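Re: weekly structure request thread

Next one in the queue (132 aa):
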Amino acid sequence: MRLKNKPMGKYEGPWMTDNGSREFHENIHFHCVSYSNDPADYGVEVYFANKFAAVELTEQLRSKFSAVILWERGEFEKFKDVWVAYWWTEFLKKSGYGLCEGRGKGWVMDDSVPAKIRNDSTVEYTPLDRGQ
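Done, posted below.
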């Protein structure tokens, strides 16, 4: 059974579905699941307002795709709103991502952050969606 993204007042609209959205809406989407069989390509991205729905989709996809990444928006040092990957499949662990350390520590994958920081190691961050 899928967890449903509940409409959020004025943000209610066609992008709020049980399966997330392929279209990013900055005001409501704080979580993302990307999946592919090519680790060099993020493949399909599905955005969610609800962390639990994103986690559920991740669980469904991990046996079907070699590269599945769970992302969320977070704050890192002077960067106030960046995408951070904090969970990934076993295949990606062996491909250089290393061990997942859970929410609050992950790979900053946002182009606004210098490449040296993005490519160096995992970092500690504060999730923007603290309520979930």
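Residues 51-61 form the longest helix (11 residues). The two ends are 19 Å apart (CA to CA).
Next request, please.
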